[in-house]
Design a protein that fits this description.
Two copies of one chain form a homodimer.
Chain A: H1 4-11, H2 15-23, H3 30-43, H4 49-56, E1 61-66, H5 74-90, E2 94-99, H6 103-111, E3 117-120, H7 129-135, E4 140-143, E5 153-157, H8 159-172, E6 177-181, H9 185-189, H10 193-208, E7 212-216, H11 222-235, E8 241-244, H12 250-259, E9 269-274, H13 276-280, E10 287-290, H14 293-309, E11 316-319, E12 323-324
Parallel strand pairs in A: 1-2, 1-3, 3-4, 4-5, 5-11, 6-7, 6-8, 8-9, 9-10
Antiparallel strand pairs in A: 10-12
Chain A binds a DNA duplex (30 and 30 nucleotides) through helix 2 and helix 4.
Chain lengths: ~325, ~325
DNA sequence: CTCGATCGTCGAAGCGCTTCGACAAGGTAG
DNA sequence: CTACCTTGTCGAAGCGCTTCGACGATCGAG
């Protein structure tokens, strides 16, 4: 292994000079800098991460706690992860992957000074992990919105507004009876807040507008989609529009509609709430409120870096939803 | 931050005694050990990862290079990742996530002594990253099978045998005209070897058995599936069986068959090559050769640890395929 | 008994890096 | 010309941990 000592010797300067030349924290003459850089090149010098962490109290690593359950939304999770990793790269940080249920993980990793900050996905309303997070000296950013976010930064799509946007779009097309096919019951029970926030926005907006509306939790499978749709039609026989917030159920919902002899959008309009690529990857291009997962992941990293480098205060950022009209929505049938 | 010094003082022993008590590398009397453990508890002591890495040349971190492209098989990738993270946890290791195309990543992370070993997914036949891997002092394990694996450990499903198994199953049911709907052309072009190995096994086995067989690359979308199926029928009008090796195209293939008025399995039998949960998550339970992604990820970690701790020699492990018959295959129509 | 292991503990020497304080050599303002 | 600042460099003191060698105490074998 080549060390900073080797470089210093090769360049004919002291160790500290090499360090300063590399970090730029003190002025170094052009000539010296050049000699040092050449030495670094020639010796293929790479600073020892541990040594650096020990001396500088900075690791250039971010912890990302992600729900690695294989059940739902894997694609969406992946997009968040991609957003985080990509943006972290920009800030010269690597990403340490922790699983949701490795409760001790955050503590081990933060208390052991392995990471500079923590990003946590899939936050629940009263998440027990928040207490751990608050106890650490590293900043934390949540993707999601707990009941009490004191001292922690949060970022997420404004799911409440997302529901309102979808409802507004459908109302504008004349629909008066709308069903929301949402997250699985288990997700709701876990009090993952995005699911609840969407439902709340939906309920609120539809009742404000005096619409006929029902909400059905939906299991993430073909069969679950069929059942949820059955229940929705049972409760609201004249429904002409659907808001679907469940990526995995989407294909089942569309197939089931076809099976009932209902055409989209002539008989039933469908608005999805999902990442864009999911919306356009269906047999039919879906009108959708985008979940900008990659972007949200990126913003999470930026917020973490802001707190780290500029000591930005903790804040909550809700990203405004954008609806893109495609082929799955049209005027309500007469 | 509480350090090992604090613990030593609290327990009334020297620093080195604490270290030995905690690592178990030298005998320590029960009494002393108890006092130390109590002190650790009370002070909530957690060793500084950087310091430990510096002194011991071990980081307890594994690098995992995964293809974070959002395009294909996200679910499958996630399963590999889950397998790796879970098994790593067992070995007290955390996982540093690197993206495929962060070429400098491995080098930075390995040369900088941030990790004890590297696991690399989605290896191509002549992967340029292998050279980098060979240059590092940390062991590397590939998930996949490059042309030349000298010095590197590999693990993967035996895709060649997987194809043979699928073909054997179908032949046993009397099918004589079989199409393989495989990976997208782009994956083939990248020379990701699992795709090619499956095709090779398929070609070889079908010709050995004197069957009518065609192979069609398949784009990972509904539309791609429809097109591939069209081409297959054009080339082999009397085909009665399909082997599908493309998770994302699976729903499209099934839908398209139905649209053609073909029943599964009465008119056409389908064998999928995919993870089990994908096979049983379809509208119809599919007969499938399982891709045991979680397990493979776990084995990769075990191999890495073996090399690290027992200096096991590099080896290549191909996992034997297992076919589970479900509802999508039946006797060939008369 | 005596000698050599073994056990239990300690002190000190690093591991490779960052950073603080010092200092010489110029530059600039008054 | 003096006083002071800036620039460029160096030496040394850690950062918190592991590990080597040493040493007294115990113990069993001869």
């Amino acid at each position: 292994m080549t060390t900073i000592d080797d470089v210093a010797r090769a360049a004919g300067v002291s160790v500290s000079t090499v360090s300063y030349a590399l970090s730029g924290k003190r002025p170094i003459s052009a000539a010296t800098r050049t000699r040092i850089e050449r030495a670094v090149q020639e010796l293929d010098y790479r600073p020892h991460a541990g040594a650096r962490a020990l001396a500088s109290a900075r690791t250039n690593v971010l912890a990302l706690m992600a729900p690695l359950r294989v059940d739902v939304n894997v694609g969406v999770i992946m997009q968040f992860v991609t957003g985080v990793v990509t943006r972290a790269q920009y800030f010269q940080h690597d990403v340490l992957l922790l699983t949701q249920d490795d409760h001790a993980g955050v503590e081990r990793v933060a208390a052991g000074s392995m990471v500079d900050a923590v990003i946590m996905m899939d936050v629940e309303a009263d998440d027990p992990r928040l207490a751990i997070l608050r106890r650490q000296r590293q900043p934390a950013v949540l993707i999601g919105l707990p009941r009490d976010a004191t001292g922690l930064s949060c970022v997420d799509l404004d799911f409440e507004a997302a529901a309102r946007t979808a409802v507004a779009h459908l109302t504008g097309l004349g629909h008066r009876a709308i069903a929301l096919l949402g997250s699985p019951q288990t997700v709701l029970d876990r009090h993952t807040t995005y699911a609840a926030r969407l439902v709340h926005g939906f309920d609120d907006e539809t009742s404000r507008r005096g619409l006929n509306a029902v909400f059905e939790p939906t299991e993430s499978s073909h069969a679950g989609a069929v059942l949820a749709l059955d229940r929705a039609f049972a409760r609201l026989p004249r429904l002409s529009a659907l808001v679907v917030h469940n990526e995995a159920a989407l294909p089942g919902v569309l197939a089931s509609l076809r099976e009932r002899g209902l055409r989209v959008p002539q008989d039933v309009s469908v608005v999805a709430v999902c990442p864009q690529d999911v919306a356009v990857g269906q047999p039919q291009q879906l009108t959708a409120v985008d979940i900008p997962a990659v972007r949200i992941g990126g913003v999470a990293v930026e917020m973490a870096m802001g707190r780290l480098e500029r000591d930005d205060p903790a804040e909550t950022r809700l990203i405004s939803p954008v609806l893109t009209a495609r082929e799955s929505t049209g005027p309500a049938p007469a």
